[in-house]
């Protein structure tokens, strides 16, 4: 019996051990299953992320159709094959220089595809008249002027990037052209290609040859005939270039050299007779010219005579600026004769020249019959106070003039006394600039009475001895208040005080 009990007990112990082992194995299997499920979930997430990346790469990053079937195992996805039409367009792009085509024959979508991929280094002779897409010329402009393009007002260029490119490109070519060193025919070639797209040409410098012949004389030129010679006087011949700018409306030119440093010579800042005659031929060949500016060029009376003789050919000219030159009384007379013809010119700028009383009289005399001039700038000359009677007559008879600047012209109280006598007849002019005339004092405005003026006059009186007042009305009001006070003021000046500057008018 004992043996049987022992055997049964051992059998139960063996069963318990087997059950415990089986339980341990089941627990290990469950843990392995959990680990496998966690690993599989991570793999699924990674697979989903790779799948999303692939779809984004094929769909979002490209504007072309993708395959409709994508394998679960990303390794078995085939490489995308471009449509045949894109392959054909790539051939057009790569062979455009050898075999250019008319892009207008393509659809809008295909044309944009080609334009975005065309090289910016293609010759201008190929792309100028074949590519009309504004996007291509925007890319060319960005390459040429860089960040400056962002600061340009596109409305000034009629939202035309092709015009922006050629205006800056030809400006750089002309201002960097060194006569007798660079190829003049190459410059003419560029002008013939893009000149018709240019409406504004700003030439801030014109270079001269590095070395001139020893027997060279700048003024020993025969002015009767201008041939196609490149530089008989050292500067670029503009006369033969005007025909390539048929749509030019604004020309700004300065006969000088920028950043010359220690190599400075006065010949670099000099406009010769030949230059002036060459410029006249340029003006004749640009019939649409509206704005002409020749500043900082040491232009004198002799050269101005040549210029004014040819200005009637510019029938559309509306603005003329000849500031910062050496124009004297004779030059002012030549301009007065031109104004007597009553051209369409409405702005004339002659600031910082050598015009004195005689030249001023001639200019104001021409205003008696001129009906188009709106603005006349004569600041920084030496006209003087004796111009008062002629100015009063001109402003009384001329109804077109609106703005007149006589700043820094040596005006004094005597001028204002004459000027004020007919002030009620100045029904046309609305802005007068008398600033920077230190001889104008508060006494000069004593006789002014603004109660009967038919028009609103805007005076500029900065840098005078009454500069503390921005308006003449304040001066008159303060004078009337002083007259009511114990301080008596006579017409000839201040009777109580020897110096009017001692009176505190604030």
Describe the structure.
- The chain is of the alpha/beta class.
- The chain folds into 3 domains: 2-76, no CATH class; 82-132, no CATH class; 146-212 and 221-437, Ribonuclease Inhibitor (Leucine-rich repeat, LRR (right-handed beta-alpha superhelix), Alpha-Beta Horseshoe).
- It has helices at residues 2-60, 84-94, 108-117, 124-127, 134-145, 161-175, 184-194, 273-284, 301-310, 329-340, 357-366, 388-397, 413-421, 472-484, and strands at residues 200-203, 250-253, 291-294, 319-321, 347-349, 375-377, 403-405, 431-433, 458-460, 489-490, 493-494.
- The strands form 2 sheets. Strands 1-2-3-4-5-6-7-8-9 form a 9-stranded parallel β-sheet.
- α11 (357-366) links the parallel β5 and β6.
- α12 (388-397) packs parallel to α13 (413-421).
- The longest helix has 59 residues, at 2-60.
- The radius of gyration is 42 Å and the shape is elongated.
- It starts with a helix and ends in a 12-residue tail after the last strand.
- It is found in: Cytoplasm, Cytoskeleton.
- Residues 11-34 have a biased composition (Acidic residues).
- Residues 1-47 are annotated as: Disordered.
- Its main location: cytoplasm.
Tell me, what is the CATH class of the largest domain? Answer: Alpha Beta
**Arithmetic mean of pLDDT:** 79
Shape call: elongated
Oligomer: single chain
**Structural class, please?**
alpha/beta
CATH topology of the largest domain: Leucine-rich repeat, LRR (right-handed beta-alpha superhelix)
What is the H level of CATH, i.e. the homologous superfamily of the largest domain? Ribonuclease Inhibitor
Strand order of the largest sheet: 1-2-3-4-5-6-7-8-9
Strand tally, please?
11
Separate helix tally: 14
How many domain modules?
A: 3
Largest sheet descriptor? 9 strands, parallel
Q: What percentage of the residues does DSSP assign to strands (E)?
A: 5-15%
């Amino acid at each position: 019996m004992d043996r049987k009990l022992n055997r049964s007990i051992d059998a139960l112990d063996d069963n318990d051990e087997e059950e415990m082992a089986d339980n341990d194995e089941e627990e290990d299997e469950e843990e392995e299953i959990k680990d496998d499920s966690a690993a599989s979930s991570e793999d699924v997430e990674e697979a989903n992320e790779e799948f999303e990346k692939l779809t984004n790469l094929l769909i979002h990053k490209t504007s072309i159709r993708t395959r409709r079937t994508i394998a679960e195992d990303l390794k078995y996805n085939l490489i995308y094959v471009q449509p045949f039409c894109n392959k054909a367009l790539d051939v057009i792009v790569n062979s455009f220089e050898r075999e250019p085509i008319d892009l207008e024959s393509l659809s809008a979508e295909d044309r944009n595809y080609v334009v975005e991929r065309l090289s910016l280094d293609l010759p201008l002779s190929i792309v100028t008249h074949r590519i009309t897409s504004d996007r291509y010329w925007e890319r060319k402009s960005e390459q040429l002027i860089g960040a400056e393009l962002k600061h340009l007002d596109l409305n000034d260029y009629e939202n035309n990037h092709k015009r922006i490119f050629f205006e800056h490109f030809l400006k750089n070519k002309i201002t960097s052209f060194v006569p007798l060193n660079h190829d003049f025919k190459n410059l003419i070639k560029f002008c013939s290609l893009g000149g018709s797209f240019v409406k504004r040409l700003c030439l801030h410098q014109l270079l001269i040859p590095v070395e001139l012949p020893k027997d060279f004389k700048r003024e020993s030129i025969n002015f009767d005939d201008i041939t196609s010679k490149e530089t008989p006087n050292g500067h670029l011949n503009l006369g033969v270039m005007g025909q390539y700018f048929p749509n030019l409306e604004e020309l700004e030119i300065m006969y000088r050299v920028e950043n010359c440093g220690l190599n400075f010579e006065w010949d670099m800042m000099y406009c010769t007779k030949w230059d002036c005659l060459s410029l006249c031929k340029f003006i004749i060949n640009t019939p649409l010219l509206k704005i002409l500016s020749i500043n900082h060029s040491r232009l004198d009376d002799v050269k101005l005579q040549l210029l004014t003789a040819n200005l009637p050919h510019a029938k559309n000219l509306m603005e003329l600026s000849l500031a910062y030159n050496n124009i004297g009384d004779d030059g002012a007379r030549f301009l007065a004769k031109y104004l007597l013809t009553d051209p369409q010119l409405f702005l004339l700028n002659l600031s910082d020249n050598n015009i004195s009383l005689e030249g001023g009289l001639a200019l104001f005399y021409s205003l008696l019959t001129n009906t188009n001039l709106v603005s006349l700038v004569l600041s920084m000359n030496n006209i003087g106070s004796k111009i008062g009677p002629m100015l009063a007559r001109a402003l009384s008879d001329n109804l077109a003039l609106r703005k007149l600047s006589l700043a820094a012209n040596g005006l004094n109280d005597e001028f204002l006394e004459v000027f004020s006598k007919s002030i009620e007849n100045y029904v046309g002019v609305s802005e007068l600039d008398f600033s920077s005339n230190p001889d104008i004092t508060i006494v000069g405005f004593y006789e002014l009475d603004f109660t009967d003026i038919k028009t609103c006059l805007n005076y500029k009186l900065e840098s005078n001895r009454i500069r503390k007042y921005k308006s003449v009305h304040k001066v008159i009001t303060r004078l009337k208040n002083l007259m009511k006070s114990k301080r008596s003021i006579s017409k000839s000046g201040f009777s109580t005080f020897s110096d009017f500057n001692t009176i505190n008018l604030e």
